[in-house]
Amino acid sequence: MKVGTFRVDGERKVGLLDADEGHVRPFALDRAAAERGVEALARLQAEGLPLPELGDPVALSDIRVEAPIPRPRRNVFCVGKNYHDHAQEFASSGFDSSAAAGAVPKVPIIFSKVPESVIAAGEAVVMDSSVDPSLDYEVELAVIIGKGGRGITKADALDHVWGYTIVNDVTARDLQGRHSQWLIGKSQDTFCPMGPWAVTADEIDLADTPVLTFVNGEKRQDSNTGLLIFDVPTIIACLSAGITLLPGDVIATGTPAGVGIGFKPPRYMAHGDSVRCEIGGIGALENPIVDRARQADAAD
Fold first, then answer.
1. Last residue of a domain, which of 40, 66, 92?
2. What is the pLDDT of residue 93?
3. H-helix or E-strand containing 200?
4. Contact (CB, 8 A) for 137 and 260
């Protein structure tokens, strides 16, 4: 099942996508539930309740797609250096504050992005070259938690997954290196594009799902979820060992090699670029890049 959060006639809805027919059918959620986006469906699953009835089809041309969870209830959990090839390229970049412990981590590296950084497909990633010109892209499979819990075992972890979506873990590399901790460099406004759709867990084969990024049509990242260092059950077990996971929590699972910092010299994003992140079975998340400083100069 592929679903999304969208606006029609100014009202937020959550609906079931039929791409072949070119429409979505809204679930009969009350306004408060719909405001939570796809999280509302995850909560229903957590409570063992059936999905609401579906309404009449609405043409895709009549809606504005939003991020599946437009504003997560708390920070998006993220995993760093979770593909072998990216771990090596990042460790050699000079920006990796964890490199002293080895290129490939022995346990998951966890950081987060603030909820306010989330934007939808098609919205602009707004960089500010006066703050940091080294803007990078990172395509990631993101887990959406259904049934919450603490102390979740690896054996039971996938029972707690409602579904998956795409996240572009946009990063200001100079800020990331300067502050050692990654929150500031990862959490600038607009630095967490998400979507455009979410799929239920049965739609994704974690052992074999392609993960790609294109910048202005040029392929930069090309990998597969089967190459994760720490798989989804391991990540969930690690996080929940001391943190109670909640329905609707989002966990970005890491990015493969091919990010801008991995090139010699680095190939960062710039004003006017378009970045397209693709994950098999979910779709494509595409966002333009806008430089706030360039906009200010143009206005003067």
1. 66
2. 62
3. strand 198-200
4. yes
Count structural domains, the chain. 2
Q: How far apart are CA 44 and CA 52, in angstroms?
A: 9
213 and 251 co-located in one domain: yes
Phi, psi of 104 (to 5 degrees): -95, 120
Same domain, 155 and 194: yes
Closest C-alpha among 287, 280, 286 to residue 2: 280
Domain end (from 42, 66, 90): 66
DSSP state letter for 140 = E
Phi-psi bin for 42: left (phi > 0), alpha (psi -120 to 50), beta?
alpha
**214 shares its domain with 259:** yes
Q: What is the CATH number of the domain that holds 128?
A: 3.90.850.10
What pLDDT score does 295 carry?
A: 66
Based on the domain organization, do 191 and 57 belong to the same domain?
no
Give me the pLDDT at residue 179, please: 80
Buried b (16+ CB within 10 A) or exposed e, 228-250: bbbbbbbbbbbbbeeeebbbbbb
In this prediction, the residues of the chain whose per-residue pLDDT falls under 50 are none
pLDDT of 297 reads: 60
* CB-based contact 227:261 (threshold 8 Å): no
Do 27 and 52 form a contact (C-beta atoms < 8 A)? yes
Within-domain flag for 7: yes
Q: Domain range holding 120?
A: 76-299
CA angle 259, 265, 267 (to 5 degrees): 40
169 within 8 A of 113, measured Cβ to Cβ: yes
pLDDT tens sequence across 113-161: 999 999 999 999 999 988 889 999 999 999 999 999 999 999 999 999 9
Residue 274's pLDDT is what?
A: 98
For residue 71, is it within any domain?
Answer: no
Predicted pLDDT of residue 296: 59
87 phi/psi in degrees, rounded to 5: -60, -40
